[in-house]
What we know:
By secondary structure, the chain is mainly α. About 75% of the residues lie in helices and about 0% in strands. It is built from 20 helices and no strands. It has helices spanning about 20-40, 50-65, 75-100, 105-115, 120-130, 135-160, 165, 175-210, 215-225, 230-245, 245-250, 255-270, 275-285, 300-345, 350-370, 375-385, 390-415, 425-460, 465-475, 480-510. The longest helix is centred in the middle third of the chain and has 44 residues, at about 300-345.
Amino acid sequence: MPPTSTVSTPLEPPRPRRRDRPLRRLQVVWIALTLAALALFAADLQVSAPSPGAVLKALALGFARPDFLALENLGQAMLLTLTVAFGGVAIGAAAGFAMALAWNWRAVRVLSLCLRSVHELIWALFIITVTGPVAIAAVMALALSYSGIFAKVFGEILDEADPAPRDALPGRGLTLSGLIYAKLVPSLPAFWSYFCYRIECGIRSSAVLGFVGLPTLGFELDTLFKQGRYDGAAAVLLLTYALIISQSLWLRRRLVPLYVLGALAYLAALSPGQVSGFGLWQLLAVDMVPAPLRGADLTAAGTWGAFGDWLWRLVSQQVLPGAWATVLVSYLAFVLCGIVALVAFPLIVTALAGRIGAGLGHVALVIMRSTPEYMLVFVGVQVLGPSMLPAVLALGLHNGAIIAHLVGRQAEGMVPTLRPDRPGGAGLYAYELVPRVSSGLIAYLFYRGEIILRESMILGILGIATLGFYVDSAIATLRFDRAALLVVAMILLTALADWASRALRRRLKVGAVSTRPFC
């Protein structure tokens, strides 16, 4: 009988079961739904409009008989909307590209965070006080916000570039020529794709900037609604839909450089407004200084005591209530967005909805994702009143439609690769597609979460008591010191949400979203 071996083999760590990760994700889903149910009790979701049915009926009649002749400045408004979009996005992309080259510097990342955390509408409110309601103010507001977004995306594209060309360089050093050929040149297609995608976003943002008095399509819509001319307002909304939905016909990539050059040339011919160095200095060095410190003796203890009282009143009466309302709106919209995406993506999968159903599903998702969130909330406030309800519904439906479109397109490509004996109908949806697209859906949801937070902040301009409500009120009463502190609160809240999102993605083993699906 051969002797038995006494050599011990090292114990291998147990492999995680395949269902461990889905269980963790399922637990997170249940926790998220439980928190959302609790948030419903804390949120102001009442219908406060005196007669929502009458407003809805008048709006429906306006859509049935849109009055395009009521738009006296239609051509000028559409031209300025496109000019602001192309000019603002181009300038923002150039500034963002410059920051992306130094993305490893902490100061650049902090600057990018500050720029992208403040919505272009908030930037516009500040800039208008110096320039007046002119087109250049809209371009500057769009460029400031988008430069931070471009810096982050371009910087991440460079970081994720294939290291093989860099490693092939002599001595593996990254000189200027090495940076150009090893990182920049391979990344140019991704840069260009994301730039073209941002042009589409810029057109929607440009239209919305009219709600703060700038001469784009949003200004016409706001004016007609305030006048009760719903047929004219319906005409503006239909033209906005036509402009955004028809982008695939006229927004050809080879024509984008010509559009950008034309926009910059047209902007150069426009009046820059009443811009003065003194006005800018007055805003930054005087008006934004906290009132107790303005012209006071900084060495006196009483000065800092007064400043502490001023700060505490502002934080307790505006910052904390505004931040809480922003979190409530954002979180409820975030959960609704995930539900809408999960329910709506089968609408464009031919194996589930059929060829005709998938076509109708595409039309429905295009309408929902093409309408700017701010315009949806604006219409919702007219119908339901200034509560959190129209904000949650608009943000959830709009962003959910975007994710449903992306996930549905991914699922459509998966169907031919599934096994021949796959189930059909509900079984195909629940057991084959949902488990396969869940990782991408969660990644897209986290990506849109930061956008939902930014949009929730500025919806206060429409009367919803988020942080934007207090910023708008402070600027309207020329209390720029309060507005500046509230903007700092916006930046800190965005940074906190970004940190929480990254931490949760790591726990769930969900990667970052590639920019390519958005292009």
